[in-house]
Amino acid sequence: MPRQGKFQKQLSLIDLTLIGLGAIFGSGWLFSASHVSAIAGPAGIVSWLIGGAAVLLLGLVYCELGAALPRAGGVVRYPGYSHGALLGSLMGFITLIAFSSLIAIETVACRQYAAAWFPSLSKSGTGDPTPLGWIVQLVLLTVFFLLNYFSVKTFAKANNIISIFKFIVPLLVIIVLLTHFQPHNMQVHGFAPFGFAGVEGAVSAGGIIFAYLGLTPIISVASEVRDPQRTIPIALILSVVLSTVIYVLLQITFLGSIPTAMLAHGWSAIGTEFSLPYHDIALALGIGWLAVLVVSDAMISPSGTGNIYMNATPRVIYGWARSGSFFKVFTRIDSQSGIPRPALWLTFGLSIFWTLPFPSWEALISVVSAALVLSYAVAPITVAALRRSAPGLPRPFLVHGFAVLGPLSFIVAALIVYWSGWTTVSWLLGLQLGMFVIYILCKLGARADRKLLAREVYSSLWLIAFYALIIVASYLGTFGGKGIIGHPWDSLTVTLIALLIYYWGAYTGLPSSQLDLGNEDDD
Q1: Cystine design at 485: which of 74, 122, 170, 490 (Cβ 3.0–4.6 Å)?
Q2: Which fold, 13-522?
């Protein structure tokens, strides 16, 4: 049996910031502009600002956790530290779905954009892959796997090279489209033709949250970062702020450069008319060279993000296994490379699986967005619980004003999940409720310590109540539900639910005597 190794501290601030920015700038910027425009019109600019503010709030929370507890796969280990193995398992499951499917969605995006040059990769009119298109996706996934197989530095070098190109093209798009900007477009049907409900819907269904959520890869590699207490907070904040500025500018230039005549029948058809937004608008404006450059970037930019999540997902699996509630084989790290290779193989297999039942970018976007937000949402409650049970824990980065920012960040996360719509909410949260039951049955079948299991259930009931209440609110609400609770009362109802759940979760964490925060040196 090969000797067990440890993670190697090789990542610098530049590496970590580019991991964050690279994870954020994937397929989101390539597809979201037209979807946001169709849902919210020019008010989609506000949607991007809301999304950026929401992710910055959650990022600040992760700054405190990441600096205090720099652990590999921290995104799934923190809930286990604060509330026990049951909560850690539920978060591990939802994060594994989010991360592994995100690798797949980035390869799907590459293939869909590449079909602009190679039509044989996609079925006409649907965006679904042909057999050849699926093989291309498989080849991309294999490349990601190999880049991550040998060492974390090999991965980081590849990511840094890709990141340089993937940021040059969006900036060039902004500059060129500004020369075709028509201010009248912003008022042709009013700034907010679909009201604030459109602004809210665009945050989830338009792909905004999907485009932003690239912070957890930074946390997932925490054990491989030099000077993590300083590096992690700076990288997190830089990633969110810079991406917000670029995304807002991209949306503004897209809205203003659409030929005004194409808006005669409103904004709702823009998503169809510009299915590949910046490629299609470049062609509409007669800028063929820009269309070529966008397609080139579209085959590189999502690849960079897919590569990052191929790196982050094994760390999530490793963290879940280290918590003791997943297969222990996934805690093995190769002694030479410092790579958790069994977890990497599982990631590779799952990423291939996700290309099978969900063929197009649009088919995956709502589920992945909601799953990503759920994986983030528990962090504020984890911080609140650890502040109560572990007040002496060194916190190199302390979030000030947390009495307000904590509940506010959880409320925002709850609203984003709710705005994803009934179909996504019922499927995803229903699956989590099923996993809760399966976990308990498995523990009972294995004759686990019933007193310990009862403590885990007690510390996790708030999350189960949250899932159940959001399902009910979604069914009764206006985002794909029955509309029994009208807008904006449905969003207000979700806000009150989130506020109640936040304080419930914060006060039912593990007591100090049962805390086990692990040791960074063990990773």
Answers
A1: 490
A2: Amino acid/polyamine transporter I (1.20.1740)
